[in-house]
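Bench log. Compound arrived from synthesis this morning; before running ITC I wanted a structural hypothesis for how adenosine-5'-triphosphate sits in the protein. Inputs:
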Amino acid sequence: MGEMRDRGAALLGRLRELPGGPELLDLAAERDDVELVGGAARDLLLGRDPRELDVVVDGTAQAFADLLVCTLDDRFAEDGVRGGVQAHERFGTAAVRWSAGRIDVATRRAESYAFPGALPDVRAGTPEQDLRRRDFTVNAIAVSLGGARRGELRAVAHALDDLAASRLRVLRDDSFAEDPTRLLRLARYRARLRFEPDAHTARLAAEAIAAGALATVSHARIGAELRLALAEPDPVGALESLAQLGVLAALHEAIELDAPLARAALDALPPGADAWPDVLLLASLLLPAHSYDTTAYETRLRALLDGFEIPAAERERTVHSAILAPRVAERLQHAQTSSQVYETTHDAPLEAVALAAALADAEGRGDAADLARRWLCELRHVRLAINGDDLLAAGVAAGPEVGRRLAHALARKLDGELGQGREAELSAALEDL
Ligand code: ATP
């Protein structure tokens, strides 16, 4: 018992050092009902920094979140914004966010499921019910933040032992059937925390997948979980974990993970806002397996990504990357000059070229892979100093010829055939074509 109290006290000490921790503790000091739970309690007990602070209260989450916003006023002022609360009434939750932190507040609740795979129906619940509704024992630990029980830990059976043993255990045998998104959560925790399911949980997961549990969940919810996997610190690890559990194969026959390929492609992707790692990873899962009818395959991919509610811009870039990557890899084999590399790559998304680099390497075509990487690091930044207006001023007729002449000048510049400066570019653009 004494040890539990010490662990609780140590947890509160660490909480005080986190963004929003002191304000949360001050606000909870006189209250008996405020507890830190879920991932926040789990991570602090593990000595990790939680991604957000999960808090449960009696009464409405929104009211507590509003109080927090007032207490956190100085933090929001630093951000130059008035702090925002994002409330989700159906689930009795409210999230308080600012640049340095996030606190998720939830009303203590009990949940029931109208049918397997449905969203839960939520009602006010006791502290015990609120722990029992959770996914894994290590997430069903709560520590009281104030009042007479300040620093006291509550947990479902096995929770603290499972935490010590890096074990993921469901709370009920029908847990995955009830909410199959927990299968994807299991994969994420495995990858991130390096925890493993106990034998019984592993068996229940396999049985749920074999019984088609994932088909009972809307594609939109699956898509949301997939995006969380892609946002993990090691997204390929999370995808590998999903693949090992059999989740990816159960989602769609077009989805297949080649983890070394995905990692190599991510390595080839340049840093910066114009590169989209999520798109690359999604595309890597959807590479066409063999000879295929492009139009039909594109249509299938679009339908799949629409189902996952991937926003249109990301969806299109993913489809193009998946379709173009093998072609770019193939064509780069025949490229001799920088301008031929340009011809092959300039219309393709960066993610397609990075995937092409990884594909070419995997097929033992290192030269083509090097060309793809050279494009990504260097050649794609080569620009002409002249533009269409310069050609019009030099007497070129408006129309497609302007574009053709600029392309010709760029090709010569890429191949290192032009001297420095605008003049050299202009005379190249005006050469007889
Ligand atoms: P992370 O470290 O990724 O933030 P987390 O454990 O805090 O993980 P959240 O998704 O923030 O996870 O959810 C907070 C808590 O709510 C979880 O720890 C878990 O107890 C509970 N929870 C979330 N989703 C489910 C679910 N589908 N089924 C049961 N409990 C859930």
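What the model suggests: The mean pLDDT is 94. The pocket of adenosine-5'-triphosphate is lined by residues 38-39, 51-52, 54, 134-135, 139, 179, 181-182 (CB under 6 Å).
ITC booked for Thursday regardless.
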